[in-house]
Amino acid sequence: MNQGETFFQQARAAFLEPSPGLKCTRVEALWHAWQARALPLGSPDPALPLEPGRPEQPLLVAPEQVPLRNAVSREGRAALLHAIAHIEFNAINLALDALLRFPSLPRDFLDGWLQVAAEEARHFTLVCEHMEQSCACRYGDLPAHDGLWEMARRTAHDPLVRMALVPRLFEARGLDATPAIIRKFQGVGDRRAVTILQVILAEEVGHVALGDRWFRHLCAERGLEPEATFQALLQAYDAPRPRRPFNEAARLAAGFSEAELARFQ
Question: How far is it, in rounded angstroms, from Cα 93 to Cα 100?
């Protein structure tokens, strides 16, 4: 981190950093400096690239080509942890992209998504450390798919659409999937993985809630009814509809209503 750089300059540098380790370090340093009010805001980059910095590996493949994930064999656990690490790495970039691509939103939008980036960086580091220690696997050793970032590309033009179809759709799916993954690791006695995933689940509720908050805020500004708008966006973007079983407690805590969840059968 260079002295004299602004918030937006340092956030852009973190977004474009290809090394996962250095990206996490940059995000953590930026978060601490921003909390200390030690940085001027600066001017956003009107020509922000659509693609974040990423390492050469993992190889990105179609979803059906990723390795089989289970918790029974060491290879299966490595594949499962690697998939989680890939989601967390994408989530760092998604949070940075939100605050850089939509800089005209209020200051607490920037605050919220920078905090999310810092928490996702910590999640990524925890998963990678455990994956290496327990499975002798590093991030990039296995292929991964690019479905989450593909939706980021498709929603880069409008923060309302981004908040709907990334946090409220894709990231909310993690709230539903994580309890079952935790049970898999409990079944094989991997207590460290269970602890890490419990931390991730608890903090991801807040991340989805942040997306829900700003989605509703932007709907209110445009005179739109949020839940009907969400349904319309799912159809307009041919996005996968939320599928049961839901982690209803987590979704309700993140801002979904019981009536909205009842629409998805």
Answer: 10
